[in-house]
Amino acid sequence: MENQQITDALVAQFGAEAVYGVTESHGILQFTTGVENIVPMLHFLYAHPVFKFQFLTDLAGIHFPDAKGQELGVIYHVHSLENNVRLMIKAYAPIEAPNFPTITGLFAAANWMEREAFDFYGILFDGHPNLTRILNMDEMDYHPMRKEYPLEDATRHDKIDELFGR
After folding, report:
1. What pLDDT was estimated at residue 64?
2. Which family is it part of (predicted)?
């Protein structure tokens, strides 16, 4: 099974406007799609008689504060165990409306992964059965993995730069 075969099938099913930014890194096909295409696309890849992407390897949140209108994103890593092929699907949403559909109905493992992305990035997964914090305290009113805070306190003078590899 070739990556071009997967790309052609996705474009034929969903259209060229739904599958864009197609690249390949280390043999893994990567592409971007819209939030509205995630669930139907994953269902298509899961149920396809040849592809059989039936294992969710990972689901991760990302934050790009400088990408206006696409600040928050989710990367879906799926694997076809039968064909030993991996695939990465990316989708982005504005930080004002970070809503993605849940995929817990297709992959039970997504339950924990979506809760983690919500906890750390504030990504909302519509339809999730229990979208609550999983690693941080419930009282936290921020999402620690967002790039909204400076990495260091610029006013500190007690650090010796040579000790930190600078």
Report:
1. 96
2. Belongs to the complex I 30 kDa subunit family.
18 DSSP β-pair partners: none
Residue 24: is its pLDDT beyond 70? yes
Q: How many CB atoms lie within 10 A of CB 92?
A: 20
Q: Which residue reads 């092929």 in tokens?
A: 85
pLDDT of residue 149: 73
Query: What's the pLDDT tens digit per position in 82-116?
Result: 999 999 999 999 999 999 999 999 999 999 999 99
Residues 52/82, Cβ–Cβ less than 8 Å: yes
Range 147-153 contact pairs with CB under 8 angstroms and sequence separation of 24 or more: 147/63, 147/65, 148/65
Q: Please say whether the dihedral angle defined by the alpha carbons of residues 42, 43, 44 and 50, taken in this order, is positive or negative.
A: positive
A 10 A CB-CB count for 6 gives 23
| Contact between residue 73 and residue 93 where contact means Cβ atoms under 8 Å apart | yes
Query: Residue 162 and residue 166: Cα distance in Å, rounded?
Result: 5
Instruction: For the full predicted model, state whether its pTM sits above 0.85.
Output: yes
Three-state DSSP class for residue 92:
strand
H/E stretch holding 101: strand 99-101
* Cα–Cα distance, 112 to 20 (Å, whole number): 28
